[in-house]
């Protein structure tokens, strides 16, 4: 018996660069106290008011099959939110509710790509991107961004890679870099998409975590609504990671086909989860700001800590719950630095190489624990010692 090429080659082989994370978890299981700055998981739970709404819906009987496209209430709520924030006319016919943002990414690529098509994504990237593309049978092709550009993509690089491609996946505010793509960057990307006839898949799950500037959805740019598939989620905006509730916003024709896909795969999202999501989105910006505030505060602390030393440089962190730190002054790769930091100080960070080649010599730090400032200070002290040792070699 033989397994499919698609399933056996999903990750491209290996752990996709997550060895340090797995080693940290093994240490924790063995009783070692490890400070984890690795994954994007809030250190607060889902807000009690959201849980109350979820419980009331479940107790009230909304525990059976929900409508596969999503409840009318949640689709309308998402549509209204998107229209208010972007100015683009949006109705429930433009919205499909999915079991989290990851399912939305898979569905979006299923809509855009046939088997053997080339699908572009930007490097550095969220760890699941290439596997998601391979999962629909497409060929994953990375387009590198550059640290010297603060990882803002260059349209010329995308254009050069776009021959024969059918789609481009972007993520702003960005995981892993914390960078927000500027309007100018997005306008240049949009021109490439129109010229090359690419679907643009825009992962916007961090759109409530903006520390500097503003978030622009490329769907709102001229002539882009018809070729843009937007991925959204309750996970980051409302600390509902385990509830698995996300969405795609797209042209109505695309949504119609994706409803057929959902009917044959996920068969929708539990109704009581959707009711809780509707409540959360209807609670307005105050609740979203309350959930994002710890990351805003920790990012400000990080700026002060990093400004008092010169061994570690921060890529401008404009949004999301992460910092991308340049540790090349130590002479180590991101992976070597992360392993050494874990061994010497029991602090776990993600090597930049975990997210592609473009972030080699960097580490990603998640601002997801209250002890973040102390851990970052230790990281900087460790890097300073390594940098000084290197200077005397």
Automatic annotation (TrEMBL):
Domain Aminotransferase class I/classII large: 34-368
PANTHER family in the cross-refs: ASPARTATE AMINOTRANSFERASE (PTHR46383)
SUPFAM superfamilies given in the database record: PLP-dependent transferases (SSF53383)
Catalytic activity entry: L-aspartate + 2-oxoglutarate = oxaloacetate + L-glutamate
Sequence similarity: Belongs to the class-I pyridoxal-phosphate-dependent aminotransferase family.
Cofactors: pyridoxal 5'-phosphate
UniProt xrefs under Pfam families: Aminotran_1_2
Alphabetical keyword list: Aminotransferase, Pyridoxal phosphate, Transferase
EC identifiers of the protein: 2.6.1.1
Protein name: aspartate transaminase
């Amino acid at each position: 018996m033989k397994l499919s090429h698609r399933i056996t080659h999903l990750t491209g082989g290996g752990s996709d660069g997550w060895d340090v994370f797995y080693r940290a978890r093994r240490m924790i299981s063995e009783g070692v106290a490890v400070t984890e700055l690795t994954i994007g998981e809030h250190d607060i739970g889902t807000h009690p008011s959201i849980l109350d709404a979820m419980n009331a819906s479940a107790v009230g009987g909304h525990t059976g099959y929900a409508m596969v496209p999503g409840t009318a209430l949640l689709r309308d709520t998402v549509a209204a939110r998107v229209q208010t924030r972007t100015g683009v006319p949006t109705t429930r016919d433009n919205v499909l509710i999915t079991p989290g943002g990851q399912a939305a990414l898979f569905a979006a690529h299923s809509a855009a790509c046939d088997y053997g098509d080339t699908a572009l994504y930007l490097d550095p990237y969220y760890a699941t991107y290439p596997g998601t593309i391979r999962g629909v049978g497409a060929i994953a092709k990375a387009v590198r961004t550059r640290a010297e550009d603060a990882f803002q993509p260059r349209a010329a690089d995308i254009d050069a890679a776009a021959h024969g491609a059918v789609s481009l996946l972007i993520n702003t505010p960005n995981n892993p870099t914390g960078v927000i793509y500027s309007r100018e960057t997005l306008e240049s990307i949009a021109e490439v998409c129109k010229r090359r006839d690419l679907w643009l898949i825009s992962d916007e799950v961090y759109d409530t975590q903006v520390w500097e500037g503003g978030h622009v959805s490329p769907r709102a740019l001229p002539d882009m609504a018809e070729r843009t598939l937007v991925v959204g989620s309750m996970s980051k905006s409302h600390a509902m990671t385990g509830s698995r509730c996300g969405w795609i916003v797209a042209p109505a024709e695309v949504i119609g086909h994706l409803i057929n896909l959902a009917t044959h795969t996920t068969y929708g999202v539990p109704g009581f989860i959707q009711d809780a999501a509707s409540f959360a989105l209807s609670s307005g910006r105050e609740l979203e700001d309350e959930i994002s505030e710890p990351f805003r505060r920790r990012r400000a602390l990080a700026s002060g800590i990093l400004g008092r030393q010169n061994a570690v440089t921060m890529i401008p962190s404009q949004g999301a719950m992460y910092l991308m730190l340049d540790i090349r002054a130590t002479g180590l790769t991101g992976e070597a630095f992360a392993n050494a930091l874990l061994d010497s100080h029991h602090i776990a960070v993600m090597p930049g190489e975990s997210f592609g080649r473009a972030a080699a010599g960097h580490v990603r730090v998640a601002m997801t624990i209250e002890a973040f400032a102390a851990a970052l200070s230790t990281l900087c002290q460790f890097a300073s010692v390594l940098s000084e040792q290197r200077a005397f070699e």
